[in-house]
Design goal:
The chain is mainly alpha-helical and 375 residues long. It has 2 domains: 120 residues, no CATH class; 203 residues, Rossmann fold (3-Layer(aba) Sandwich), CATH 3.40.50. Helix content is 47%, strand content 8%. The longest helix is centred in the first third of the chain and has 22 residues. The structure holds zinc ion.
Length: 375
């Protein structure tokens, strides 16, 4: 039987989540811990790092001072803006192309570019990225496995090529959202083993098949660790230095970009109640829907928990929103997504149902799928 966290509404079917004896999840416990962190002290640590970066940039006469992995969404955009406007750095933004680009993403990236940011986009060829998305959707119910690997490798490959040793990622997901934290250091500096183990599952080198050669996988393969060490490349989490909140990031971006940052035109994205998060890839709605199928929590639960943990919502409201939106099917770009995955509707449904966890789903009398136990 699924249990739900007593403070937020996350079920214990979420991978790597752990509940304590009082039934509270590790993400909620971390959000309490965050309140006790001396953020002034962390800011001093950040300023020291900024000085080091400025010194390095001057010494090397480098055009860019650091790298920001940048989707064009509110989180990475807020980091880019802060580094440039508040700390006088010149970050080079690195985008790993969305699987199916959309107009909102392109618009938001262009608007930031107009504010004086240079960027690099790595766009792996669609022949291979489609094959990989299809394969991982079938095998793991997640079309974004390879994309995830690319998001992790591309900024470091660019860092190596440009010889820029400082990289700023957004938040440390394992501590913010409930997971296994390897050690204290991994909340500050990105540990690639943690990422491979928890996010991607295996090394892209293993994805060679009859149809895919190792060369085809170049955009997804993480650079050699010894090469990274030689250049002293270190990837930091912004969430170590500043208290992380997706809502506050959005408000900061909205204000700083003077309303040029576009949100979802329907005032919310399908499957949830927010209109400002994860907007730049047409396949994202399917990705979140599959979390609902596999683990029994949808995108509304995910968003509500993040806000609950930052005291931006009541638990009652979170429950209402989860009940209303979690099971909404991603109709909006469905046809285009199917075409991208080279799949018809029957095959799609078959695969979705193969990934349905029997411990959390049952069929009702009218032959519809229902959660055995929902919030
Ligand atoms: Zn919780």
């Amino acid at each position: 039987m699924i249990k739900f966290c007593k403070k937020c509404i996350m079920p214990d079917s979420r991978p790597r989540i752990v509940f304590n004896n009082e039934g509270v999840c590790n993400a909620c416990l971390y959000s309490e811990e965050k309140k006790k962190i001396d953020w002034e002290d962390r800011k001093r640590e950040f300023l020291k790092l900024i000085n080091e970066i400025a010194e390095f940039t001057k010494q090397k006469n480098s055009k860019y001072s650091c790298i920001v992995p940048w989707s064009g969404g509110k989180d990475s955009t807020s980091i880019a803006l802060k580094l440039k406007l508040e700390y006088d750095l010149n970050p080079l933004l690195v985008t790993f192309s969305p699987l199916i680009e959309n107009e909102i993403g392109v618009h938001n990236r262009n608007e930031l570019s107009k504010m004086g940011f240079d960027s690099v986009m790595i766009k792996p060829n669609l022949k291979i990225s489609r094959k990989l998305a299809r394969r991982f959707f079938i095998e793991r119910g997640n079309p974004k496995v390879a994309w995830d690997a690319g998001v992790n490798s591309a900024p470091l490959t660019v860092a190596l090529n440009y010889q820029i040793p400082y990289v700023f990622y957004a938040e440390h997901g394992e501590s913010e959202y409930g997971g296994l934290v390897l050690d204290d250091e991994s909340q500050k500096k990105r540990n690639i083993r943690e990422v491979i183990e928890h996010q991607i599952g295996d090394f892209p080198q293993n994805w060679v098949s009859n149809e895919i050669r190792e060369n085809d996988l170049a955009p997804y393969i993480y650079p050699d660790e010894n090469e990274l060490k030689k250049t002293n490349i270190t990837a930091y989490y912004f969430s170590y230095f500043f208290k992380w909140s997706m809502l506050e990031n959005f408000h900061y971006v909205e204000k700083t970009m003077k309303k040029k940052f576009k949100t979802h035109p329907n005032k919310r994205t399908q499957g949830t109640f927010t209109d400002f998060d994860s907007l730049d890839d047409k396949i994202d709605c399917l990705y979140y829907y599959m979390q609902y199928v596999k683990f029994g929590f949808g995108r509304a639960t995910r968003d509500a928990c993040r806000m609950l943990q930052n005291d931006q919502m009541t638990r009652q409201k979170a429950i209402e929103l989860a009940r209303e939106y979690d099971n909404e099917f991603p109709e909006e770009n469905f046809k285009e997504v199917l075409e991208f995955l080279e799949m018809n509707e029957d095959e799609f449904e078959l695969i979705v149902n193969q990934h349905r966890n029997n411990e959390i789903w049952k069929t009702s009398i009218d032959n519809k799928w229902k959660l055995i136990n929902s919030i």
